[in-house]
């Protein structure tokens, strides 16, 4: 992953220079826009950068340049893909800023979420009206700003491509991703709030649809495809990247679901059991409900989504989910999906160095602890 | 304005066909996304379409085609500009959806705002948790969706241009507009909530900056420039369009400020005195504060922004603002700005038909009652 870390640095440098240009626009409008600049930078430093990495390796897989990102001379060739990877990270930051409002999350990566930062700015400055409402309003606008910027950064990258058909296909992939993940996010809140209107036998299917559109396509398949399309990849190459990306994306999110219930707060940066308090209707919950007797299922349904759950209740729910065998079933699903992903690489017309790296990323994202 | 109405029809047709394509994506994901489709259409029908009209006339002014939008044969030539005009309307709908959350507005054009529509959907379906929170969350996502779509529609239009430099310049104008209006909206809520931290002598300057970035550039100057750039307009042409657009945009917003306080609810679709209950710190308020004695100014400051203001209080505030001469001063400013706008057209290297139409639009937007 040394290769990966170096790329993460290149992406960060690109993000920083892009934000420098945007802050000069903000400064030309007024000095009191400083929080928009400061907080956008804060949400664009750090993070795991998985989307950027998948985008890069999709590109390398299809172009087979065996490109060495350590060599100075090639920086120009790398500019389109680094910009596209950086654009995905901007889009993701914008989505998280809005998601945290929607989920009423106080924290992000162990630090305050954007609306909480603005809320604090308001309270400390002693402005009028409610600090929490200012926090939400300002965070909606910050998300909108970064959403627009993600688009500009992608365009800057695609403008450097001489292959115009590749640029158009890459743009279409990004657009589709943007619509699908927003729809997936809507389905997610719908599932949380209307699951009781659907039969017990439909819960798994609902969770699967959320996982597909909100997570698997968005976090893995689309970034890989975007990279592959920027490289001007062939139809069989794109098909292999998607065949790898979709199951791996499902595994990625299933791991996330386990971490949301059982993760260590010190490692994830989110309170342990956070998904239980939020009442997320994940695959893990759907599977647990299928396995539990009706009494235990009713108790799970009753407690799930109660923001006031205490430590003892969280531990009891964790125990219930574990003991019914749901965790083992999800671990089995993760294993199966990762195997499906790996199988898609075997005879794929993709570069060997990328295949090796994608195989290693598959391990990382499916076994991660944060 | 018959010419104008015909254009409005062309823009609506373009919006409808674009939304048809997007709803087929939504349908492929799931039938329960129907509200996203329905409500996006609702916020994209009707409205005054001033931005679309300015965009078209900026194009006509710079291209001087003397184009007849009634003639069937020319539809292909018109496609880029109609798509760009439609994209501005999509962007505007997205901004309004988010603005109504921020301003906690219950209505838009006399009908429920987006977050209220989703709130009602939730309540009627008997879903879990709070209907108002679902309303806000779903409307944030709907705004994000339409924001992304505005961008796609602009791209579809610009892709048809053979003049690539013109396409790039048009895209840059749209991007700059997007950043500036979002920053302007942030400055607007900041002005509402932190005006008391600034000196009495700074209030007019603060209001002027909001009016410039949130309204004047966004509603008039940028649409005109976008159209002019799509036509491949020369620097003197663009300069003339901006010289007309910025002062007219200021006049447009000053009229809006008057309507927000004195407008007829039946005509504006917003409750009369709405801006007073919302506590908007407009130029009208800044001017009134300068003119009022300290006791009356303190009373204005105290009442402004109280959502519970009753009819009698609204009438008293209207009377105070009127009697101090603030309305006359604003009417004088509108007249001056419209004169400045008209002056910019006199020797401008723009087509005569467009000059005549822009002159007529100047009258419409500065004298409108809704």
UniProtKB/TrEMBL annotation, chains A, B:
Which InterPro entries does the protein's record reference?
Isoprenoid_synthase_dom_sf, Polyprenyl_synt, Polyprenyl_synt_CS
**What does the UniProt keyword field contain?**
Magnesium, Metal-binding, Transferase
Give the required cofactors: Mg(2+)
Specify the enzyme's EC class, one word: transferase
Is Hydrolase found in the keyword set? no
Spell out the Gene3D superfamilies in the cross-references. Answer: Farnesyl Diphosphate Synthase
Q: Name one GO biological process term.
A: isoprenoid biosynthetic process
Recorded superkingdom? Bacteria
Q: Which Pfam families match?
A: polyprenyl_synt
Gene Ontology MF terms in the entry: (2E,6E)-farnesyl diphosphate synthase activity; dimethylallyltranstransferase activity; geranylgeranyl diphosphate synthase activity; metal ion binding
Q: What is its EC number?
A: 2.5.1.1, 2.5.1.10, 2.5.1.29
Q: Which SUPFAM superfamilies match?
A: Terpenoid synthases
* Annotated family: Belongs to the FPP/GGPP synthase family.
Matching entries from PANTHER family are given as:
GERANYLGERANYL PYROPHOSPHATE SYNTHASE, SHORT CHAIN ISOPRENYL DIPHOSPHATE SYNTHASE
The identity of this protein, by name, is Geranylgeranyl diphosphate synthase type I
Instruction: Give the organism the record lists.
Output: Agromyces terreus
Q: What high-level taxonomic lineage is stated for the organism?
A: Bacteria, Bacillati, Actinomycetota, Actinomycetes, Micrococcales
